[in-house]
Design a protein that fits this description.
511 residues; Rossmann fold; Isoleucyl-tRNA Synthetase, Domain 1; six-stranded parallel beta sheet; four-stranded antiparallel beta sheet; 16 strands; binds ligand ME8
């Protein structure tokens, strides 16, 4: 039986259209999901939308339609976007679905039964944009005298009856969790941040709201709706069929990894495990957080007019090109800058020149000089062995990086082999061998085809469409594209289709 692997994206607020930041986290999670499937895991990959709360209610009111009609529309847009980006989710969850309301009501009851809830009165700061409560010590005073959350969001003073979750009682258990599981929070900078936040002492958390009603009702407490983060976080167990622990999907819980942005690490690494501990449910194994994309060095914002729309990028450059850029350009956990120039440079140097030319040069020689069939291997020179062994070592190197979500390092390892293969082809000069030693030429082309096969197989999670084309051209059958299949050589003489360039150079359209 295949080992299970459960992976999630954040569920996105439906208060506006998807932007590149949403695309980024989803693509990273998708790369991981595809990698695990090819590596022999039974993967369950969940994404979806976060539809309750004040922020969404206000956005619906501004649009002049009911919250449900509004969320139906925007959730559908996020789903279309996920499909357009080839996000291979197994289920798409919406928090307004009945299954989620039932699951979250049950989670609430379990927490209540543990004695971790009490009725009180909240009085303090709230940022609707973050859907988060802040202590005054966390805020900055602006020149106009108003306060601002660490995220830059405006805050307002809230006073209302509220249920509280006894978060303060979980400090020791949370610290123990982080200490015993050093991989629970990644990267380390975020882990340190969370640990010092928890060490600083935790306040009880307000978990119901009474000044609006767009949320899941608190059981037996008229006027109270659940705090949107308790509702939203619970999507991860709803997706596994909770509270039906006999559901076939329940086997996937706990999650192996939650992908989140650095802005929402506190919710996932502090509140979420505490809720689960209280409800007596197993804890996720890892929360990995991505850094921020800025545009040409500046923060993306509607007022600056520099918000990057993923659809436009995909139209201009191509889906796989964008997926590659996002995974390659910066370390996953760090911030990085996105610009057309940077995308074009990755496309033209690494995709078109390095990889595209390598495949095209090798395969067109096979087509022209080997009768369009995969040549047989021959006796190996040291140069052959060096290249083939670096290719053979790649799956393990890449796997180790994937486990840590160091995607850009995984790609760098792959590119070392791509560059080595380009060095090899230049040294071996099969075009010259074509005139002097056709037998050796065929052997050289086979070494290249085998190397490109390894590279293309490992790159499938990042560039699924382009690598499918490349593997077609290499004659790799659909059922021999997982990592285990790499240990079986392709049969000599496999007929190969006529090669076609997979990565054209990007040429700026004439103005
Ligand atoms: O926070 N760069 O939803 P959200 C990189 N509903 N990633 C970015 C980004 C940027 N500039 N901007 C956004 C929520 N993101 C909650 C989540 S989960 C139970 C509930 C990504 O629509 C990043 O992953 O605000 C961030 O965490 C997510 O989008 C937030 O999406």
């Amino acid at each position: 039986m295949k080992p299970k692997y459960y992976i999630t994206t954040p569920i996105y607020y439906v208060n506006g259209a998807p932007h590149i930041g949403h695309a980024y986290t989803s693509i990273a999670a998708d790369v991981m999901a595809r990698f695990k499937r090819l590596d022999g895991y039974d993967v369950f990959f969940l994404t979806g939308t976060d539809e309750h709360g004040q922020k969404v209610e206000q956005a619906a009111a501004a649009a002049g339609i009911s919250p449900q009609a509004f969320t139906d529309k925007i959730s559908a847009d996020f789903k279309t976007m996920a499909d357009a980006m080839a996000i291979s989710y197994d289920d798409y969850i919406r928090t307004t679905e009945d299954r989620h309301k039932a699951s979250t009501t049950e989670l609430w009851k379990r927490i209540e039964k543990s004695g971790d809830l009490y009725l009180g009165h909240y009085e303090g700061w709230y940022a609707v944009r973050d859907e988060a409560f802040y202590d005054e010590s966390e805020l900055t005073k602006k020149p106009d005298g108003t306060f601002m959350a660490p995220s830059g969001a405006p805050v307002e003073w809230v006073r209302e009856p509220s249920y509280f979750f006894k978060l303060s009682a979980f400090q020791d258990r949370l610290l123990k969790l982080y200490e015993e599981n050093p991989d629970f929070i990644a990267p380390t900078s975020r882990r340190n941040e969370v640990m010092s936040f928890v060490r600083g002492g935790l306040l009880d958390l307000s978990v119901s709201r009474t000044t609006f009603n767009w949320g899941i009702p608190v059981p037996d407490a008229p006027g109270h709706v659940m705090y949107v983060w308790l509702d939203a976080l619970n999507n991860y167990v709803t997706g596994c069929g909770f509270p039906d622990e006999t559901a076939s999907r329940w086997k996937y819980w706990p999650a192996d990894v939650h992908f989140v942005g650095k802005d929402i690490i506190r919710f996932h690494a502090v509140y979420w495990p505490a809720f689960l501990m209280s409800a007596g449910l197993p804890l996720p194994k890892r929360v990995t957080s991505n850094g921020w994309w800025v545009v040409d060095g500046e923060k993306m914002s509607k007022s600056l007019g520099n918000v990057i729309e993923p659809r436009k990028l995909m139209e201009t450059f191509g889906l796989d090109q964008i997926r590659y850029f996002l995974m390659r350009e910066k370390p996953f956990g760090a911030d990085g800058s996105i610009s057309h120039q940077a995308i074009i440079s990755r496309m033209n140097v690494e995709l078109a020149n390095d990889l595209g030319n390598l495949a095209q040069r090798s395969l067109s020689m096979v087509a022209r000089n080997c009768g369009g069939a995969l040549p047989a291997s021959g006796p190996r020179t040291d140069d052959d062995t060096a290249l083939l062994s670096s290719a053979a070592a790649l799956p393990d190197l890449v796997r180790a990086h994937m486990e840590r979500q160091t995607f850009h390092d995984a790609l760098e390892e792959i590119w070392k082999v791509v560059r080595a293969a380009n060095g090899y082809i230049d040294r071996q000069a099969p075009w010259a061998l074509n005139k002097t030693d056709k037998v050796r030429m065929a052997h050289v082309l086979r070494v290249l085809a085998d190397t490109v096969r390894v590279v293309a197989t490992l790159l499938q999670p990042v560039m699924p469409g382009s690598m499918a084309k490349m593997l077609d051209q290499l004659g790799v059958p659909a059922d021999a594209r997982d990592f285990a299949a790499l240990s079986k050589p392709l049969p000599d003489g496999t007929p190969l289709p006529a090669p076609q360039g997979v990565f054209p150079r990007y040429v700026e359209p004439a103005a």
